Structure formats: structure tokens, C-alpha cells
Amino acid sequence: MKLPFWERNVKSSMNNSFDVIITGGGPAGVSAALYAVRAGFSVCILENDGGSLKKTEKIENYYGFPKAVSGAELYERGLSGARELGVKIIKTEVFSIGFSESGFGVDTDSGKYEGKTVIIAVGAKRKKPSIPNLKAYEGTGVSYCAVCDAFFYRGRDVAVLGNKEYAFHEAKELLGLASSVTILTNGEEIGAYDERFKVNTKKIESLFGDEVLEGIRFFDGTTLNLSGLFIAEGTAGGNELAKKAGIVMQNDNIVISEKGETNISGIFAAGDCTGGFKQIAKSVYEGMNAGLGAIEYLRRKK
Prior knowledge:
β15 and β16 (about 255) form a beta hairpin. Residues about 10-15 have low confidence and may be disordered. By secondary structure, the protein is of the alpha/beta class. The protein is globular, with a radius of gyration of 20 Å. Strands 1, 2, 3, 4, 5, 6 and 17 form a seven-stranded mixed beta sheet that branches. The chain has a five-stranded parallel beta sheet with strand order 7-14-8-9-10, with helices on one face. The chain contains seven helices and 17 strands.
């Protein structure tokens, strides 16, 4: 049985240290991996569920496929090809990216992985929770990054919206600073969770407060007073990972150079998380570009 992430004690070792760590196993991530591994570098892909590609029923306009192919099949073919060349594929959920002695550390639900360079290719979240007036409190009580904003809520009551491990990870970041931390599932079921958190499974009707967030109103007529609400539904997209790492963004998209590099030297990005057309061909190109950029970066470091 797999233990919850807060009960695991996985330490960094040579087995989880790589030249290139790629978050995301879609077209952008695999394309980057193919170039990096063929250049002689150790590469791993941290992938979770295949994202939007795996959910696509039919793809009919992609080079080399005279007949329609499902997104799931294309996704599996990509990973298989990378695996054949020696890329290590690790099924895990990525929580955040930070700095470490070897370069960068990537926190996941299976421990921390160390990389000399990182390529963000997990795609981008396309939908925010459908809660009335949520946007009105963004920056005045609603946050999308616990690591970034936890300090501003020290000694206050806060909540995290979500029911999976990413939400639990965000809640853990708030412990010790906030007065109390409540997990809000918004009517969804919840599995095992850290007992240091409160849990509220009621369906959310709306948020309330004058100029700043003051609380949550539920459909059963009850309310929960709080100062901060951290959104962490599902898994972390490229924009969430970027915000935590201090990467420059524009309109919720990661800003990259011509070589696919972010404002942080050694961290690259490719695919849907950089904005523009949400097309496989664009993701493959940007993955190649980021892979070549990472190769150049690593060779300069030698």
C-alpha cells in the first residue's frame, strides 16, 4: 500500500539525481528528453496522467499518421520511444521546483529528485474553480501558491481548496504559520489526509468579504470565516510550478527566451504552459528547443 506523501521519507541519492529532469510526459516533455538523452546526458521524465493529450479522443492532423490516432495511443508511443533510448520514466506527481546543491530539486509525492537542469512541460491548467466572485478576491485573500504567500497569513485562519495530494502538500506548507488550516473539498470525496488539517466537504456557494476575503458561504446556509483561500484542485500545472520557483510569467503563461529558457538560468519550459497555440506540433517544436537549450547549458557548465 502506498503511504501518503507526508509519511514518506525518500531522500535524494544517486538513483534520483539526473542531468535533466523533465516534468511532464507529453509531446513537449518527450521531445526534449529525446534530444537530451541522445546528447549523452542522464534524463528522467516525471509524469502523472498524460494531461489533455491522453484525454483526446481522436487526432487527425498530425504528421506521419494517415489515419486518426487517439491521444492515449500517441502519448504511450511517445513514452515508449523515450524509454527505449534510456530515458527514465517515473510515475509521480510534481509539487514544486526549487534550488539544491546540485542545481535544482523537484519535490514529488515519491520524494525529491535532483537535477542539474529542469524543463517544465506539464501543460497548463485551463479552468479555474467555478465559484462565483472567486476572481474578485484574487490577491486579496485568494492565492494559487502556498509557498509564495503563506507568510502573509501567519496567525490567521486559512483554507485549501482541493481533495488530492497536491492540496495536502499546499496545506502542509501553511502549517506552523497559519492559525488553522482547513481542507475544502467542495463536495468531492477525500481519501487519507494528514490529521493536522480540518476537513470540510460541503459544497461552496460563494465567497464573501468587503474589500478582502472574509469567508466562505456554503449551499447549506452555513459559513466559514477565514482570511485566505489557497486554490489547489487536481495537480499542479506549469503556471503553478513557475510561480513557486519565482519564474516570470505573463498572462498566466511562462515567459521563455528564444532557446526556451526562463528567467532562471537552467530552468526551461515548453508546450502549453508557455501560451500560444495548444497544438501538438507546437509542443514538439518547443520541446526540441528546450532540450537543445538544456544541452547547451549543461555543456557550458562542464
